[in-house]
Design goal:
Length: 184
């Protein structure tokens, strides 16, 4: 009989998942995050754990996660946040992602996968999964129509901004220069 995992986001699931988070690696690799002059309130591992909570709980946004954190004791325990009053803010989570970067996120994924891969016996029938982070998004399904800001270069209802031959910023700069010429 197979043992089942507890439901995702529950206290039992968080307790089961907690030992697999590489806290020491996170805190050694990124010891202190820059806060733009503010004090350092949280190390990397609790902030990374909050990112995991955003994935494994039904909370749809970081803002709501941070707002609900004071009343969710199991979530704070998983994230190793001691105080109910002092919780990280969304800016700290954004700073973490910015400082770690894409390569850092891949390194963390490698740390998470290392014990799992070490247990798997590779045979001739082994398969691999593609890391989809480098693949372009499929955006062709629902194109939004944008009105032209200036002139009729592309006609009314021009296709998506990324498909225009000339960028909107360039056209705005040209329009601004010509408007100044008329005033002078």
């Amino acid at each position: 009989m197979k043992s089942q995992l507890p439901p995702t986001g529950t206290e039992d699931f968080l307790e089961l998942l907690s030992p697999f988070v590489p806290d020491d690696y996170l805190d050694q690799r990124w010891p202190r995050l820059k806060t733009g002059g503010r004090r350092y309130g949280f190390s990397t591992s609790p902030l990374w754990r909050l990112h995991l909570l955003a994935i494994i709980t039904p909370v749809p946004s970081f803002n709501l996660l941070i707002r609900m954190l004071p009343e969710q004791k199991a979530w704070r325990r998983f994230a190793r946040i001691r105080s109910q009053e002092q919780v990280p803010d969304v800016r700290m989570m954004n700073t973490l992602r910015e400082e770690i970067g894409v390569d850092g996120l891949r390194q963390i994924n490698g740390q998470l996968l290392e014990p799992i891969i070490a247990r798997v016996e590779l045979s001739q029938g082994a398969a691999a999964l593609i890391d989809a982070t480098d693949l372009p998004a499929s955006c062709s399904g629902f194109k939004k129509k944008h009105r032209m800001l200036l002139g009729a270069a592309g006609g009314a209802g021009c296709a998506h901004a990324q498909e225009r031959a000339e960028s909107v910023v360039c056209r705005l700069q040209e329009a601004h220069v010509s408007a100044l010429d008329l005033v002078v």
